[in-house]
Write a structure and sequence with these properties.
single chain; alpha/beta; 4-stranded parallel sheet; 4-stranded mixed sheet; about 40% helix; Guanylate kinase; ATP binding; cytoplasm
Length: about 210
């Protein structure tokens, strides 16, 4: 029997966390279970590195081009990092959402708050470490940063944690399986948001008959 339900718009899922919280691991697990997430390729003014290709890792553009796009309001979020601009174009994200594809953003707090202005009905998740000592242990166990870099990351995490109350959901990554279960639940619950199915009830009622 054919369904009369209106198509669901895609969901914006935004995930932020201090460095070392385990965000990449949780996101990889979510993508493995739900492989149809859409991704927007960001624009940047920096030069390609290694085997990076234009249109694959990033859209590599000139500074003048980026500034012109920004002036036209084409970015859902943008930031300057180490002298280079990075930004997410709104149009391709809107297109994926209109197609019913969910879009995941792994982004910093500044970018997340910009995205909220454009995508108000998204789900904004902040991942928290169980403690400072555990966060430091994880950073040291990675073996990729100097003591100075680790201290800098720990200092930055304080500022990020102070902005956690601007997010819709908190997930504490103490036990990985439990944290993933909570993140998964947020995602699945977000897909039921009535805002993603405008007109569904009206369509249902109209076809109900008197």
């Amino acid at each position: 029997m054919a369904s009369d339900r209106t198509p669901r718009r895609g969901l914006i899922l935004v995930i932020c966390a201090p460095s070392g919280t385990g965000k990449s691991t949780l996101i990889a697990r979510l993508m493995e279970e739900f492989p149809n997430f859409g991704f927007s390729i960001s624009y940047t003014t920096r030069e390609p590195r290694g085997q990076e290709q234009n249109g694959r890792e990033y859209h590599f553009v000139s500074r003048d081009c980026f500034v012109a796009m920004r002036s036209r309001g084409e970015f859902a979020e943008w930031a300057e990092v180490h002298g280079n601009y990075y930004g997410t174009a709104t149009a391709p994200v809107q297109e994926m959402l209109a197609q019913g594809r969910d879009v995941l953003f792994d982004i910093d707090v500044q970018g997340a708050m910009q995205l909220r202005k454009t995508f108000e009905d998204g789900e904004f998740v902040f991942l928290l470490p169980p403690s400072r000592s555990e966060l430091e242990r994880r950073l040291r166990d990675r073996g990729t940063d100097s003591d100075e870099a680790i201290e800098r990351r720990l200092g930055n995490s304080i500022g990020e944690l102070k902005q956690a109350d601007r997010f819709d959901h908190w997930v504490v990554n103490d036990d990985l399986d439990e944290a993933y279960a909570e993140l998964r639940a947020v995602y699945l619950a977000g897909r039921t948001n009535p805002a993603l199915r405008p007109g569904m009830v009206e369509t249902l009622v109209a076809g109900w008959g008197k």
